[in-house]
Every structure is written in C-alpha cells, then in structure tokens.
Amino acid sequence: MERATPLLRRAGLLLVAAAAFFVCVAAQGKEGQAPAPGRTPAPPRTDRIIIDTLAAHGKLELPPVAYFHDKHTEALAKEKKDCSACHLTENGRLSFTYRRTSATPPDKFQAIYHEGCIGCHMEMAAAGKKTGPLDGFCRSCHNAAPPPAQPLEAGLDKVLHYRHVASPDISAPKDKDNCGVCHHQADPQTGRLTYVKGKEDGCRTCHGEKDQNKLLSLRKASHEQCVRCHLELGAKGVKKNGPYESCAACHSAGGQVVIARNNQKFLDQLPDRQVPRLLRGQPDAALLTWLEKKAPAQAPARMNPVPFDHQAHEAYADSCRSCHHTGISSCTGCHTLLGEQAGGGVTYEQAMHAPASTRSCIGCHTARTQQPDCAGCHATMARKDTPDGCRSCHQPLPKGTLPLHELANLTPQQRTAVAEIMLKSRPAAPAPLPAGQLPGTVILRELSSQYEPVAFDHAHHLAKLEQAVKGSKLAQYFHGEALTLCQGCHHNSPASMTPPRCSSCHARDFDPRQPARPGLQAAYHGQCMSCHREMQVKLAATSCQECHAPKKK
Question: Model pTM?
Fold first, then answer.
C-alpha cells in the first residue's frame, strides 16, 4: 500500500489537472471559439444586443456580452414573467436599462449584471429547468465572435403614421391629431421637452447614432418612445396596442409583413384607399434651385430652376424620409454648392442627380423605370445625360418674373407662385401619335430561311406601351413628345415617322470590327426577348414556334 500511494497521488493530480482543463474549456464557451473550417457560421440575429455599458468607464477585461433579447423574453413568458423581471420602474415609468435606474452609480453595473443574469440562471438550474450559462462560464456570454446582428430598420410610412394619428386610444391634450404624443422639442431655457404645433420634425433631426450629452441615440430614443407607449396602452387594457413583445415584431422581415398586412386592412376602410395628406405648412409647389444669399460668389444661378410638384410627389412617397432623410427641412440646409461637412460632402447638385440614390430626383425616377411596364424599354437603353434631358426638368422662367440671378430675392410664397405657373405650363398628357400613319403589322423576312417570316403586330405593341404611359403621370411627362415611345425599339435612330429598319445598322452576320453591335438575329432576339422578360410577358424564350411558324415545304 505504501508503494502504491505515490501512484495514486500522481493519478489524483492528473484527474485534477484534467478537470481544471475541461472547466477552463467550458468557461471559454463554444460561442467564444471561431467556427471550424467548413463549419457554417451562426445565422444573423434580429434581437442581438451588445452590452458594453462599462466600456464608457474604462477598458474591458473581457469582450462585451452578446445578449439575445427575444430568446430571453420567450423563456420568461413560459415562466409567466414580463418586462418587470429585468426592468425596474422609475417615477412610474419603466426603465429600459437592466435592473437599474438613471441614479445607479457605474461601479454597481457589473455586480447588477452578474447577480441578476447568473443568479436567474442558477435559480432555474436548481429547479431543474433548462437555462443559460452558470457561474464560471464567462466566455459563454463574453463572446469575442458573436452572431452578427441583422435588424431591419423599423420606421413609420405614411399609412402607419396615419394609423397613429387616427388612433382613438392615443390622446394628446388639446391636440386632435395626436402629434404631441411623439413630436417634441427641447425648450432652450428650461431644457424640458415641449410640443410646438407646426414645428414637427423627424427624430433624426436631433437624435444621432450615439448618445450626445443628454440626447439619447436614435435607437434608444425610438425604443423609449415607441415601446413605452405600447406598454402603457397595454396596461390600460387596449388590446390592439402595437407590437412590443419582441424585437422581431418590428425588426424582422416576418414582423414587417404582418405590419404591412395590417396597413392594407386599414387602407381598405378609408375612402379611395388613400390616407389624408399630412400637413405641416409645406408648399404645394416649390422651385428647386440654389437660392442662398449668404455666399455672393456662389449665389448667381446658372441653371434654370426646376418647378417641383411637392403635393403630387407626396402621394408616391412612403414618408417624408423618402427625400428628407435627416429631418423635414430644405435640401439646401445640408447640401451646398461646394459640399459641406453637414451634408457629408455631398453637393447640392449631387444630391439632386445621384443616379444610385433613391433620395435624389434622378435616382428615384430611375428606380421607377425598373417596374415591369417601363423596364421593357429602359432595361436595354443606356441612360443619356444630354442637354435635352436637362431641359425636361430645368425650365425657363415665365415672362414677367425676375431674372434668373435674382431668384434669391423672392419670398417663399412668391417662389411657390412661380413654380405653380411653371407647372401649369407643362403638357398635361403625351401628344397623340398621328392616327393611321403608323403600320399595323410589320413583316420581318430578312432571316426567313428555316422559318416563315415573322408577322410583328406593331399596332398591338404600341398600344400596350401607350396604355402603360397613361397609367403613370411620371411617364406621361417624360414621354410628352410624339414618337418618344418609338425610341424603345428604334433606339439609335432619330425619332421619325419612318425610322430605318433594324438591318440598316445590324448586319446579317456579326462583324468583329464592331463588337458592341450584334448581328441581325442577335439584335432581334435580344430586343424582343429582353423586353418580354422585363415586362413579365409569358412567352418562353426557348419556344421558337411561338413567334416563328415552321417553313412550309
């Protein structure tokens, strides 16, 4: 026995070392390890919140905690617990910080999180219930490589906004439109939040991406305002009090589908399925041009102004943010002629003409051309920035008004009046094509070797295009001249009643000396098939006999 004692002692030490090793591995947690090669990474989460509260008070010893809110609320719901399990009440209102209020000193934060989170897990484990990491499993929460967050932006389009305006359950004293429930301004004297009618603005006007002094970040301010209101309505017994029970209810694709479906049900109950116009003193029409008086060297305008039908565009926009992305103010408030820091270095001209931005005029119009009725022509046409294209929007001032360089001297009301005169001078509808002077059917016989010539129903195709234009005011304006519709097919020839045949430009066989110009067969097929595909016409691209009758023997 005495000889065996050292062996047992050594074996015991090995067991202790092994146990310590496995405890350390467990403490690291699987989530803290990088995914093995070939292993599928964790999917993105809508509800991931990074808890790095102590980072503002010093260097963190461990990575921040990746906390999954919906996962915890679902678990608490099974235990018949609600928000109060994690959030305290301060002055009768729920605090959105974890188990603390604004008066809690920072040196208490770590203990609050550890005692609250781990303590809850320990209680559930003691009761034999499935739970989260226990004491010692630090890396299971302090994860250096958590799943990515992928919440969708939750905003108010004009339908959802009007649902709040018209809600009988939301009450704002002396404010029939309920605007004061959400919209507020900080009084410069007292710092208190007050509602000023006619001065409503977007949340982004004051709230940025991060906390600044006493201003909460946009994310915190939105949750403080929206979630708290929904919670308070629920406490009053209001059944349809909006989504607040989970992050996914607002920030996931599925949640937004539900909101959109409810919006449609609400629209169905309104006259003509239209929400009333949201009035905030905006003009019905405006002149888009540089009108800054403060910079004399830049002020003289060189380009004709654009008369902008603000009221008509409101009907097409989902919300004011479609254009006013930082707040309801003029574009010139941020975007100057030379580009200032306030506008991200984007000049006024770029803000109006950026082709890739849906907040610019050109970008929004370009996006509209991708709809099926328009894409048949526009998908295969190169966008042309020509002086003629500029004149479609930039119109000369009416006779009797001030010279171009004195526009800045007009009052806002005078500029609106000038814009309205210019808008009325625009053609109301496209000029009709000359009746009876265009062919009804065109026989395409150049390549009729294996198949019979193609009888192209020219009149039918043109009628389809005219019908699509009549359904869009935007299309009516930009197709206002006769023969504009013809340019979709006759794309490289001047608009004419007798355009040249396709074979005038496209040779029978492909010419390698002109690689950008396809041969005649490729030109026909490329033009016809791409148009059918973009306009979602049900013709099989591989079914030759839908267009070509077999050659008679």
Answer: 0.75
